Structure formats: structure tokens, C-alpha cells
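check these C-alpha cells.
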Amino acid sequence: MSMNMGWKEEEDASPDVQKFCNEVKASIEKKLGKKSIYNAINFRAVETKILYIAKVHVGNNECVHLKMSQSLPCYGGEVKLEQFQYPKSKEDDIEPF
């Protein structure tokens, strides 16, 4: 059985993905401390587009991989940080976790 579970291929980050990353920024800053840069680079989504993993540049060659979920619009559309992986580099591929 494939562990891919419907994850799409990696894509360049869109303004919507940056927006989702911004919505969980305070949660990440509590865990990692404030970072001077916070730019989404690329992402992967599940076919349903309710679960995302994004690579976010946080300074120098450091990145954090964010796993985020979004509730359905009828339930408010809230974006929630599920998990994160840190430290990561710009060269690290985004792998489902």
C-alpha cells in the first residue's frame, strides 16, 4: 500500500499558501522564536486541498516544514497548525509527515 495517501506533487507556493502560513505564524514563533523572514517557498496538498505541507524560509538557509489543516468553509475555514519539522534547509524536499 502506498504511503502517499493522495499527496500531490510539490508546487511553488501561491498567495493562498502564504496566507495559510501567516495564519499559523504565531504558533511557530512560540515554538521556534521570532524569525526575520517568513516566506512560503513551495508546498504539497492532499487531493482534497484541506491538508497542506509548506516549506517556509525563516532566514539564511533555514526553513521549517509546516503541516496545516483547513476546516471546511461551512465550519469557518480556520487554518490550524498540525505539526512542523525544524530545522530544514532550502534543499530539503517536502515529504508527507
Observations:
- Strands lie at 11-12, 39-45, 51-59, 62-70, 79-89.
- The helical segments are 15-23, 25-32.
